[in-house]
Design brief:
Blueprint: H1 18-27, H2 30-41, E1 48-52, H3 58-66, E2 71-76, H4 79-91, E3 97-100, E4 113-119, H5 127-140, E5 141-152, H6 162-167, H7 178-187, E6 191-201, E7 204-212
Parallel strand pairs: 1-2, 1-4, 2-3, 4-5
Antiparallel strand pairs: 5-7, 6-7
Length: 213
């Protein structure tokens, strides 16, 4: 029997655009947005950190360079993006584990991580996978562990301009309102789930969330 192949939305929307993903995100303000998320997360020097939807590894590499003693694991369903992530880490001589998989079926034991981060991934998930993914993140966090997420605001939070609609036409943004995200976090078992910040980028605003197990 042939195993069915599960679909996913690539980081750049289409595989052909993957080589352009990093420079475009940087040009549009992604580097500063990730720095803000990292500052918010309050990572300790010996924490075990999970990067959900790590894509091409930019956030994982940033964390490892900033906190060399931290153990970090990144997960993404896109093998092409993971190839780029592993090459980035190798160029910097950084020991980072990159795994292929889906957020709603995490291959890690319960209570495995002190911190979980996610940047510009949640809008990729269909509505039926968002809650399942958050429940899995909650499961793999240690008691008192924190989940920090940055993602594009949904259409209910802000009007969409032409440029934003063009660049994010592939995204599942209609389910990405702050109210919906916070409800899903609470339903997943998190406490103190809240939108804790907001940042403008060239083609839209990014919302920052924090939730505690």
């Amino acid at each position: 029997m042939t195993e069915s192949v599960r679909n996913y939305l690539p980081a750049a929307g289409r595989d052909i655009f993957l080589p352009l993903y990093d420079p475009i995100v940087k040009m549009l303000g992604g580097a500063a947005a990730r720095e803000a998320l990292l500052a918010q997360a309050g990572i300790g020097p010996t924490d075990r950190v999970f990067d959900l939807g790590c894509g091409t590894g930019t956030m994982a590499v940033l964390i490892k360079k900033r906190f060399p003693q931290v153990e970090i694991i990144g997960l993404d369903p896109d093998p092409r993006a993971l190839t780029r992530a592993r090459k980035k880490a190798a160029r910097e001589a950084l020991a980072i584990q990159f795994d292929e998989g889906f957020g709603d079926q995490l291959p890690y034991p319960a209570a495995s991580f002190d911190r979980a981060l996610s940047s510009f991934m949640f809008h990729h998930l269909p509505a039926q996978e968002k809650g399942k993914t958050l429940r899995e993140v909650h499961r793999v966090l240690k008691p008192g562990g924190e989940f920090h997420m940055a993602d594009f605001e949904g259409p209910e939070d802000r009007k969409q301009g032409f440029f934003r609609r063009l660049l994010l036409s592939h995204a599942h943004l209609k389910d990405n309102s702050a109210a919906n995200v916070i409800t899903l976090m609470n339903d997943a078992g998190f406490t103190d789930a809240a939108k804790v910040g907001r940042r403008s980028m060239l083609f839209g605003a990014v919302a920052y969330y924090r939730a505690v197990k």
